[in-house]
Structure formats: C-alpha cells, structure tokens
C-alpha cells in the first residue's frame, strides 16, 4: 500500500500564525517549505511521514477570519449577513477540501485545543458536516488523558468521560479513543470508559503511556496497539489501494 498522506493542523486561537506567539506558551516556531511560521507539531509530522508541508497545513482561526473578511470586503457574499453558520464553517471546510482537490489520498487533521473550548466549536461543526458527506471515508480519533493521583496512585477517568460527553452532545462519537497516561491503561479502566459510552468498541480503545522520546509514540501505536490494522479496517484502505492500482494500470 503506497498512499500519499498529508497533514492539516487547525489551531483555534485568533493569531494569524505563530510568528508572534511566545515560545514559552507554544514552543519553537516551525517554518514550512514556503516560509509559513506554524506550530512545532508540523515539524514532528514532517519527520514522522517523510513529507514536506506548506502553509495550507497550518490554519488558525485568525487565518480563517482573515480570508472570510477579505471575501466580504470584496463583495463575495452579495450583501448577505456573514455568520458563523454557514459562512465561517464553510470556510473551514474549504481548507479541508483543498487537499482533496490536490490529490492527497490520506489527510490527517489535528484539531488543536481542548474539547469544550468555545473557540473550537466552529471547527467541530465543520467536522460534523464533513462526516455527513464522507461517512465511509472519515473517522474521528479522540486523544484523552487518564490522570494518576500522586499521593495514592489512583487513576481517574473523569476528564476522558467529560470530553466524551461533550463530543456526544455535539453529535460526535469517536471511532478510536487514545488514552494517554503515565503507565499502560489496563482492561478495567478501558471497560469503565466503554460502559459509559457503549458505542465505543473495546478493541478501538488504545493505551499510549508517556515516553521519553516522541518518536516512540507512533512505533508503539503501530506495533503494540495495531493502529495501522484498525485504520485499514475502518477506512477500507486495502480496497482503496487496489482501486488505485487498477486505475494506474488502465
């Protein structure tokens, strides 16, 4: 299987890009191949995937507003009242469909911030609308923490349950849940989370303990949690790859 991937990172803050963001808050700025100054995570993605990203891969709320207001000043909306729904959400969706038009076969979208953040909601609404259009071609992966109390070692699932509850009110049920924690998350904790959300498949609740080296994370997901096999099953990537091969042969 040789599919062409790309990355899109949404950051809900109002800054246009990372140029003037304090490194004490967001880490070092990463510069893309076309000179855009974006989030440090983009550098990790480039090294993980062996690809080069450009400015289309780092989108902030500020950048979306900038594009939207420029269109409004140019009269693109024909006198309509410009609103969050549909105009802002449509502009977010446009940032996603750009990759489809440019023949990217797999797109990983990271929605930054924390679930229930007010500034994140237009992006969640855009995700819901995209899911309705691409039911079999799109999945949701939610990353959530399992906290450990230092004085007792007790492990708390409340933050994860709260974020899942909020997503459920928005109409989003994750296809895969990744639990981050200091130690491996055992079956009992996974089952406790799953019982509150029966639609979650136990096999798709993955444990990712903290690592000293960030490059160990994708290896852990691939080798121990079999994430590649799960993605293949959910997205029918083998069928996609076979269809692509047939088209190339023709």
Automatic annotation (TrEMBL):
InterPro entries: CTP_synthase, CTP_synthase_N, P-loop_NTPase. Residues 4-235 form the CTP synthase N-terminal domain. GO terms for cellular component: cytosol. Pfam families: CTP_synth_N. GO terms for molecular function: CTP synthase activity; identical protein binding. Coiled coil: none annotated. Signal peptide: none annotated. One of its GO terms (biological process) is CTP biosynthetic process. This is CTP synthase N-terminal domain-containing protein.
């Amino acid at each position: 299987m040789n599919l062409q991937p790309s990355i899109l990172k949404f950051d809900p803050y109002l800054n246009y890009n990372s140029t003037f963001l304090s490194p004490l808050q967001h880490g070092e700025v990463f510069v893309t191949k076309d000179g855009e100054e974006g989030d440090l995570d983009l550098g990790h993605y480039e090294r993980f995937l062996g690809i080069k990203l450009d400015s289309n891969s780092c989108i902030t709320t500020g950048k979306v507003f900038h594009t939207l207001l420029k269109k409004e000043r140019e009269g693109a909306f024909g006198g309509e009242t410009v609103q969050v729904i549909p105009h802002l959400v449509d502009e977010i969706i446009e940032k996603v469909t750009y990759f489809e038009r440019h023949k990217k076969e797999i797109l990983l979208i990271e929605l930054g911030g924390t679930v229930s953040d007010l500034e994140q909601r237009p992006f969640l609404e855009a995700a819901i609308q995209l899911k309705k259009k691409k039911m079999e071609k799109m999945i949701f992966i939610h990353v959530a923490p399992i906290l450990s109390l230092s004085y007792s070692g007790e492990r708390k699932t409340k933050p994860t349950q709260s974020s899942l509850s909020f997503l459920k009110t928005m109409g989003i049920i994750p296809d895969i849940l990744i639990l981050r924690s200091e130690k491996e998350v055992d079956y009992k904790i996974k089952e406790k989370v799953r019982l509150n959300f029966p639609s979650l498949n136990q096999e798709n609740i993955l444990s990712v303990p903290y690592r000293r080296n960030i490059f160990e994370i994708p290896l852990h997901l691939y080798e121990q949690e079999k994430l590649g096999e799960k993605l293949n099953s959910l997205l029918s990537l083998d069928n996609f790859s076979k269809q692509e091969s047939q088209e190339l042969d023709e």
